[in-house]
Amino acid sequence: MPDFIPPDSVGLVTPTTHHFQKPLQLSGGETLSDYALVYETYGELNTSGSNALLICHALSSNHHAAGYHGLADKKPGWWENIVGPGKTIDTNHFFVVCCNNLGGCFGSTGPSTAHPSTGKPYGPDFPIVTVHDWVTSQAQLANVLGVDTWAAVIGGSLGGMQVLQWSMDYPDRLRHAIVIAASSKLTAQNIAFNEVARQAIRSDPDFHDGRYYEHDTEPQRGLRIARMLGHITYLSDDIMGEKFGRDLRDGKIGFDYNADFQVESYLRYQADSFVGNFDANTYLLMTKALDYFDPAGPTHGDLAKAFAPIKSRFLVMSFTSDWRFSPERSREIVKALHDNDLNVSYAEIKASHGHDAFLMKIPQYLDVFGAYMHRIEQEIN
Amino acid sequence: MPDFIPPDSVGLVTPTTHHFQKPLQLSGGETLSDYALVYETYGELNTSGSNALLICHALSSNHHAAGYHGLADKKPGWWENIVGPGKTIDTNHFFVVCCNNLGGCFGSTGPSTAHPSTGKPYGPDFPIVTVHDWVTSQAQLANVLGVDTWAAVIGGSLGGMQVLQWSMDYPDRLRHAIVIAASSKLTAQNIAFNEVARQAIRSDPDFHDGRYYEHDTEPQRGLRIARMLGHITYLSDDIMGEKFGRDLRDGKIGFDYNADFQVESYLRYQADSFVGNFDANTYLLMTKALDYFDPAGPTHGDLAKAFAPIKSRFLVMSFTSDWRFSPERSREIVKALHDNDLNVSYAEIKASHGHDAFLMKIPQYLDVFGAYMHRIEQEIN
């Protein structure tokens, strides 16, 4: 392995793309005649097929959860802190799978993919997909990989919603469900933030009703605003205070519209590095999947009733300073699981990092998560 | 008085504009050679001049605090709930003044005003003004009105910051300071939200570097985003949940980008009614005044030291669900005032309405506020 890769990394990894020929019926009524999913795997599937884990990604993330794609990579996968040999999700013991969700912009079929009948990018003709649709497609991927039952399905944020959906849709195909910093539905405030992000993208003159690919442009202004706004909700007020406070960029205020404060520079930097690396139509789709997720919708708000089919055991974790999906949201999930006499471990982790804490190396978080993973490991035969 | 005007309203009111010829030196180093302030007054100044109150307005507000401008008015002034004959701020006893701040867009000199030397709107050449500059200009207005000492200076949010500044800059010119839902400085998160709003406006192609007046357009897209975002921070998560929850607009989700949820319609409506009624350059200025406000800056963060010149008595009020300027921010102000042995009443009002609570008829709020106003009333001779 090249020198710069630490020994506890899965190292160099190569994504795989699988083309599905079987049509996929979507929640919105449309059908995808064929589609592709790009995914990565780390570790080896054992002969009994009992050590497979599925990691579900969050809004702006992808299939590249761990390791490096090449020697020029500046950064490893998005969950490198958690996934690797000897780490919390230990690739010495588990076969770990992570795929880019349908509608994504990292290789799975999505708005930027060529429409099979026109050869042009789908753009706004790509249907809005739901968490349920993602889980259906992930189950197809499990079939391809020869995984009948996941040892665990694991995810944070929007990923955690997929875990909940897995446990409802395929109760016999996962033994454990690990739901981190998630919610069983968005609040009005959550939806409101998503709507502002969408309006920023859709009102950008470069959006061209979603057909910007054909105009050789993209709604960069809108995507920048969406990303800046997202970042505010991923961090807590406290951690922003700790990281930036009212620190000035040049020691004094400028009485102009350059960035006066460090926090302004930070947001501008985050926005700049997002555009060019993420597709605006995918951003729109992902926020809609979030808004629409509401497993208790069909049971008129009765989450316990919605959870009736579930059989798996659960680890639910939340973070005290997460105001996007606060611990209260996790407690609602835990309560509804308990109402079904399910086996649930719940940990409310004290952390100042806000929603993004699920990506961080926080000792208490790693302890709880690691202990649970160790328990799963011991069940594997 | 016309029939549609309730008896506890100040009724039909007419704004007055005063043109100041004396140059105003601004905090940023520039000087305004002349400027105008538009203001309204309600009630009568008594012969001793002891019953004058100054109301300072918040970010997007103006001099029209109470009453109606004409028979066609759909809505009264922004603080009609509080200001009027027999109301909390009782115009039967007080002479109430409210002016549109410098840099505003409702008649006071601001970016949309013609520059005296070019005849074209100032646009981006209008200097960034600070809370201190506003207070200086308001003191000039007090001179014009023959008010030597205010019985009280009163304001919510950014208005409360002006009250603090008044008490520091002119300790002998106010007897009482009423600071509602305010903060002695913005947090990194507050600044971050302002920065996203500014970026939305400034990146709108119709912004034209702030010279949009000359292009006969305005950055409506950006201003809409700024307003939607503002609204989220003015309301609490709880009140948004109570008002909208996950209620759908048409009973079902549409799998498209029309407004699915009531909260989306609400935000779009708020944004639509804001554009055309507010100037984008003024919005930028107001957010900068907020960001820059930091009376403890010169005393290296020691707010008690910054408050040393203050002589007035204080009523400070905050609202439990206000996450824009949380009760913690008010408690910091109260502590620093107490450290100076000042007379301070503090009330943390239980209310689910968020930051906007200061505009509402909340019984506990009106009780505390009214009792304090009654006390001031009794001092008047």
What is the number of beta strands of chain A? 12
What fold name goes in the CATH topology slot of the largest domain in chain A?
Answer: Rossmann fold
Major β-sheet annotation of chain A: 8 strands, mixed
Oligomer type: homodimer
Assess the beta-strand content of chain A as a share of residues.
15-25%
**Largest interface, C-beta closer than 8 angstroms, per-chain residues:** A-B, 54 and 54 residues
Residue stretches of chain A low in confidence (pLDDT < 50, at least 5 long) are: none
User: Tell me, what's the shape of chain A?
Assistant: globular
Number of helices of chain A: 10
Could you say what the CATH architecture of the largest domain in chain A is?
3-Layer(aba) Sandwich
List the keywords.
homodimer, 381 residues, Rossmann fold, 2 domains, two-stranded antiparallel ribbon, 10 helices, globular
Written description of the protein model:
Two copies of one chain form a homodimer. The first copy, chain A, is of the alpha/beta class. Chain A folds into two domains: 16-185 and 294-379, Alpha/Beta hydrolase fold, catalytic domain (Rossmann fold), CATH 3.40.50; 191-287, Rna Polymerase Sigma Factor, Chain: A (Orthogonal Bundle), CATH 1.10.1740. Chain A is 32% helix and 15% strand. The first copy, chain A, has ten helices and twelve strands. Chain A has helices spanning 131-145, 158-169, 188-202, 220-234, 237-243, 262-274, 280-292, 303-306, 327-338, 363-379; strands spanning 16-20, 24-25, 31-32, 35-42, 52-56, 83-84, 89-90, 95-99, 150-156, 174-180, 313-319, 344-349. In chain A, the strands form three sheets. The first copy, chain A, has an eight-stranded mixed β-sheet with strand order 1-4-8-5-9-10-11-12, sandwiched between helices. In chain A, strands 2-3 form a two-stranded antiparallel ribbon. In chain A, helix 1 crosses helix 2 (158-169), helix 3 runs antiparallel to helix 7 and helix 4 (220-234) packs across helix 6 (262-274). Chain A starts with 15 loop residues before the first strand and ends with a helix. The model of chain A has no long low-confidence stretch (mean pLDDT 97). At the A-B interface, helix 3, helix 4, helix 5, helix 6 and helix 7 of A face helix 3, helix 4, helix 5, helix 6 and helix 7 of B.
